[in-house]
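Write out the bound-state structure for inosinic acid.
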Amino acid sequence: MNIAVLGAQWGDEGKGKIIDLLTPNFSIVARYQGGHNAGHTVYANGRKFILRLLPSGILHSGVTCVIGNGLVVDPQALFAEIDEIGAAGVDVTGRLAISSKAHLILPYHKELDVLAEAKRGERKIGTTNRGIGPAYEDKIGRRGIRVGDLSDRAPRQMLEDAVRQNVEARNHLIASAHMDWRQVLDELDRVWIRLAPFVTDVSVLLHQAMRDGRRIMFEGAQGTLLDIDHGTYPFVTSSSATSGGICTGLGVGPKTIGAILGVAKAYTTRVGEGPFPSELLDQMGQRLRDGGSEYGSVTGRPRRRGWFDAVALRYAVRINGLDALAITKMDVLDGLESLEICTSYRVDGEPLHDFPSEIGHLARCQPVYERVPGWSAPTAGVRSFDALPAEARAYIATLEQAVGIPVALISTGSDRHDTILRDDAVAATWFALPA
Ligand code: IMP
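---
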């Protein structure tokens, strides 16, 4: 069975670790959206790796990693990442596949990102300034440049025209820009030389693999609440981070996705602007930031922190069709006297059970909390459910009840092995781990 692992909150849920942990049970790890705005942290052999564009299975030799058409690829960022893991002895030769239909992030996209944010002023989104939004704008505007457009097979004149028109349009928009389109084209020719060996028809590759009985893990970046359609628009990223993005971002049908695991922290964080009903602006928020090292892995910005929001999680279950949850950073809650779980909202005094579809409505939501006792014995490094303090087990049970799906995995530390596989039967069915 193929599975999907994706973010159930606002990104930074710890997907990298979970994907890396499950990778040995799969032949292929395939990313379907986003770009190097992602920062998936994986600890392996005592080293910390932050993967941005490369799928989180890349540290396992023998596993093929796929960058789907749904991504936007900054070639220089990709090469830097390949070099970085190469220096640590990880070779991607022959096991990295990049879709010829993926769109390219070009130098002017980053400038446009910075410019757009500056123009928004007070209403800024808080983007990662990586050119993600402008590259997707060009894709939807049907003027984007795709990886395969650089190939010898593509009509050269079309590429030249597209680069010239795009650069000229950008020079017009950015007063200080005097970009020479011929230089951009020359640079793309150099990019192609290094990129070409990886470029393929990803949909064909995945379908062939499935025919051969190989298992695929679909990897989401960012999170449900940052999805372009279902997230807290406009404070979202520009891609489809929810499970629907798997089909469009890789060229596979919905029936190829066997089970979907949503990853969520035991509390909530978000980077950037936008409403956040369970946000903690007090000492407790400070504590979560310090205890969880809540700083963005890409931008270094401090993340906003809050209590676990079961309303948002129920929404993630509905939008993605989640089968189970992986709860991460459980150990960050160690030592608290009591904890709150946001189980519903109130708006203008009225109770609200479902996550609102309109941002103004969400901004007015007040969290309704259920208080549960904390635990004093540490969960850090605990590897079996029964060894957790009783209050921590009760916390998980309350989350399950509030969200409505089982918690299959609990992460109790950054190491691969600091993980609880909750239920052997679930593990056997979904992750092909021995029961
Ligand atoms: P963009 O993706 O750079 O356009 O940023 C749009 C919003 O998504 C901003 O609030 C970012 O902070 C947020 N964002 C983008 N990527 C990630 C991520 O990987 N983790 C958390 N937040 C992200």
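---
The pocket of inosinic acid is lined by residues 11-12, 37-39, 125-128, 130, 132-133, 221-222, 226, 235, 237-238, 271-272 (CB under 6 Å).
Residues 3-99+198-256 form a domain with the Adenylosuccinate Synthetase; Chain A, domain 1 fold (CATH 3.40.440.10).
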